[in-house]
Amino acid sequence: MEKLLSDSISSQVREVFQQLKNPVQVMLFISQAQAEACDITRQLLEEVVELSDNLNLIVYDLAVEPELARLYKVAGKAPAIVMAAREGTQITDYGIRLLGVPSGHEFGTLIQDLLLVAGRDSGLSPQLRTYIKGLSKPLHLEVFVTPT
Amino acid sequence: MLAHQIAMENPAMVLAEGVGATDFQELSQDYGISSVPDTVINDGAGRVVGAVPEQNMLAEIMRTIGK
């Protein structure tokens, strides 16, 4: 199978991933209903995860793991990428999701997100941190982007 | 992505999804997405169009869900 990432991109990403200091668990939720998009996303993630020892990928089918899909709030959404912190066997969900094939501009977002999760710190201003930590009502943010 | 950074500060309360409009056309149409990025807050209760600084995002979140 031909690679999705060029050698040039792979080596650039591999180099950037030297900053990736802590383990990240990537979970991809797929569905037969979006087979093509899921196949591409799966291959892309497999290639990306190979570029660092601190990245691990697990793939789940929405139909096979409905409880897990509900737990991670990705039911009915495929391809859905969850990027969580991992310490040994413990997974910490940061509420971070990417929905759809991470191509074009979204590929950069994927790489940045992996670094963000590995860094274990939001990098936000103290004011925004305090406000968000103090939330007593749920906050759902859906950021619509296009690949190009 | 700013929304993802926000989620990290309170994963119990915040869900931040980066949505590829091409793969999620129906959802994009439901919200009337035209220019991107477009951040929909709490299923349409709030909205931020464009890539904005933290302060702007904070202001709209506060307006949407209160202080």
Describe the structure.
The complex is a heterodimer of chains A (148) and B (67). Chain A has helices at residues 7-16, 35-49, 66-71, 105-119, 126-133; strands at residues 24-30, 55-61, 80-87, 90-99, 139-145. Chain A has 148 residues and is of the alpha+beta class. Chain A has one domain (7-133): Glutaredoxin (3-Layer(aba) Sandwich), CATH 3.40.30.10. Chain A has a four-stranded mixed beta sheet, with helices on one face. The longest helix of chain A has 15 residues, at 35-49. The radius of gyration of chain A is 16 Å and the shape is globular. The model of chain A has no long low-confidence stretch (mean pLDDT 96). By secondary structure, chain B is an alpha+beta fold. Chain B has one domain: Glutaredoxin (3-Layer(aba) Sandwich). Helix content of chain B is 39%, strand content 22%. Chain B has a two-stranded antiparallel ribbon. In chain B, a hairpin with a 4-residue loop joins strand 2 and strand 3 (46-49). Chain B is globular. Strand 5 (139-145) of chain A pairs antiparallel with strand 2 (38-41) of chain B, so a sheet runs across the interface.
Topology:
The complex is a heterodimer of chains A (148) and B (67).
Chain A lengths: L6 H10 L7 E7 L4 H15 L5 E7 L4 H6 L8 E8 L2 E10 L5 H15 L6 H8 L5 E7 L3
Chain B lengths: L1 H8 L4 E7 L4 H6 L7 E4 L4 E4 L4 H12 L2
Antiparallel strand pairs in B: 2-3
